[in-house]
Amino acid sequence: VEDWRDGEDWGKIPAADASDEHPMEREFHAWLASRLPASARVRVGVGDDAAILRWLEAQDVVVTTDAVTDQVDFRLPEIEPRQAGHKALGVNLSDLAAMAATPVAALVSLVLPRAGAGSRSAFDLAVELYEGMLPLAERFNLDIVGGDTNSWDGPLVISVTVIGRTTARGPLRRRGARVGDALLVTGSLGGSILGRHLQVTPRVVEALRLHENYELHAGIDISDGLALDASRLAEASGCGAALRLGSIPISPDAERLAASTGRTPVEHALGDGEDFELLFAAPREAAEAMVRDQSLGVSITKIGVVVERPGLWQFTDEDELHPLEPSGYEH
Ligand SMILES: [Mg+2]
Predict the structure, then answer these.
(1) Protein residues within 5 Å, CB atom, of ion ligand 1
(2) What spacing in Å lies between the alpha carbon of 223 and ligand 1's midpoint?
(3) What is the pLDDT of residues 251-295, one digit of tens each?
(4) 289 C-alpha vs ligand 1 centroid, how far in Å?
(5) Pairwise CA distance, residues 244 & 234, whole Å
(6) For the chain, which ranges sit under pLDDT 70?
(7) If you measure from the C-alpha of residue 222 to the centroid of ligand 1, how many angstroms do you get, rounded to a whole number?
(8) What's the pTM?
């Protein structure tokens, strides 16, 4: 954090008057204050009315939010609460990765089922959710600086807002792909419902490394399905996306799932979503170098090209464009 502006040490701000807080909330805040690591760029963290972050004037703030809900994004009785916490933060970090932004801070709001979950009290549930988030926060040098904790008679809701900063290369956006660009993806796709949708590995480091070392024109993270997210990138860029289905890297999970669904592995790779891999557009020469680059820590596969004709397409065996359904998860 040596590039953070020096300032006087504001010291540790004592917790705000907490007399109107619910006892559980007070106890939870005390636990949280002791559990969160100290950070040079957080001038005021949990305990005041708002957090204060050190910032450099040259950086743009990148901010995104996403909520996950029991019975929609996971089934709490079937998983460890830590996995839900991990997912809630992971999906937000994936959106920062898609923008090629460096993570800085997160705000976490928990709406807990009043009765807790299973044999866990609401307090224990909150602690477990954080224990799922904190390793991910540490891994990506992110400070959790505040949020809110409520309880109600409904299911668990975890709402996370993450704040990042642009690098000297600026942000990566969905718009910017050019006709003739290669379309590339990280990792492999499909069948995330078999478990990977909980074990989100946001491609933050990979995105920053790619953005720093190569010319990238546009990017998006694959949250709702390759086909749908590719069509979004193409639409934002004012062009079309043509995929070579035989080139799409298929996850072993997609193969396993296909054995019981009657759909093909490639259909799962196109439409399942929650892969949290990156899809990006880059000039052809850069694309070839990336595919060969062993230092990125993840495989990069060329799966298609950006074309002039708007829409989503697949190449036929005769190299003609045939319409492709933008299958995926529509919210
Ligand atoms: Mg996204």
Answers:
(1) 95, 221, 223
(2) 6
(3) 999 999 999 999 999 999 999 999 999 999 999 999 999 999 999
(4) 25
(5) 15
(6) 1-21, 330-331
(7) 7
(8) 0.91
